[in-house]
Design a protein that fits this description.
Elements: E1 13-18, E2 21-24, E3 34-40, E4 46-69, E5 73-82, E6 85-92, H1 96-107, E7 114-122, E8 128-136, E9 139-140, H2 153-158, H3 161-182, E10 198-201, H4 234-248, H5 259-270, H6 285-297
Parallel strand pairs: 1-6
Antiparallel strand pairs: 1-2, 2-4, 3-4, 4-5, 4-7, 4-10, 5-6, 7-8, 8-9
Helix pairs in contact: 1-3, 3-4, 3-6, 4-5
Length: 298
């Protein structure tokens, strides 16, 4: 869609999803779609996001990549073609929006345009609902993944926060692995002719999705096979390390590591050597709250 902003290096315009909208964070106040939105961070402080704001995006998925940044962590980049325009929707893998998008990639018809509409609202039951609604051929996409790892509702009532955090990290890793195996090899990054529908203008209020899907039903988690090979993605290295730590260091969590440290820890994991955990006290309740908030409400 022309007029949104400069397309850099022929790769496309980068967009993010937050607060129930699609954002071009680089747009300034001169953009006709410019808006600001106040939000509460995981540590309970208040922040303001700003940029060109849109309600939805329609186009054909023509590329999927997982990226790791030393400061911002892992993200999934979905390249969407809308007519002559290319958009790259970049979402952290550690939130609900990315999980919904990965579900959609596993369920959608990759040959057809996809309608993408985020939502974020508090329902009549006072509970927050956030995610993404997808449509193809005018029909809502069913995001239920039957074989996805899950836990019964009762488990969450008694589980420790550390265990809940680990479960969601493992669940994210499972979806990443499924998309890398079953979706990425199928996408050829050509630029097919698609209807020029692009981004939809956002209104002040976020549309409600009253039929938000429930959590997938239970299936017991099982240990993944060892990750081997010379070219292993950072996401897979972290997954292997988390499994190694869960088995050998049940009272510890995988810390935030630089790329170099991640590579070094992964080599130690493969060699079944001792991991160099820092001599620090166990993660505090407030830190766990912030980490869980980042996983669930980012």
């Amino acid at each position: 869609m022309s007029g949104l902003g400069a397309v850099s290096e022929g790769n496309g315009l980068y967009l993010s999803i937050a607060g129930g909208f699609i954002w071009n964070r680089k747009a300034d106040a001169s953009d006709p779609n410019y808006a600001e939105q106040t939000y509460v961070r995981a540590d309970k402080t208040e922040g303001v996001r700003a940029g060109a704001r849109y309600a939805d995006l329609t186009g054909k998925v023509v590329g999927v990549q997982f990226r790791t940044h030393d400061d911002y962590g892992e993200s999934i980049n979905i390249k969407v073609a809308a007519g002559e325009d290319i958009y790259i929707v970049s979402i952290s893998t550690n939130n609900r929006y990315s999980q919904d998008f990965m579900k959609a990639l596993l369920k959608m018809n990759l040959e057809k345009p996809l309608f993408i509409k985020p939502y974020d609202f508090v329902g009549s039951d006072k509970k927050r609902a956030m995610g993404i609604s997808f449509r193809q051929d005018g029909e809502k996409l069913d995001l239920k993944i039957e074989n996805a790892p899950s836990k019964e509702g009762e488990w969450f009532k008694t589980a420790q926060k550390k265990d809940i955090k680990r479960f969601f990290e493992d669940l994210n890793d499972w979806f990443v692995a499924e998309v890398e195996e079953k979706v990425v090899p199928l996408i050829v990054e050509d630029l097919p002719e698609t209807p020029k529908q692009g981004l939809g203008k956002a209104s002040e209020s976020v549309s409600r999705e009253d039929d938000v899907e429930s959590k997938p039903k239970a299936k017991e988690s099982k240990k993944a096979p060892e990750v081997q090979g010379t070219e292993v993605s950072p996401l897979k290295k972290k997954k292997a390390l988390r499994e190694y730590i869960a088995e050998n260091y049940p009272d510890n969590e995988l810390p935030n590591l630089s790329k170099a440290d991640l590579d070094a820890w992964y080599e130690l994991c493969l060699a079944e050597e001792e991991l160099p955990f820092p001599n620090e006290a166990e993660v505090s309740e407030s830190d766990l709250d912030s980490q869980l908030g980042a996983l669930l409400d980012k």
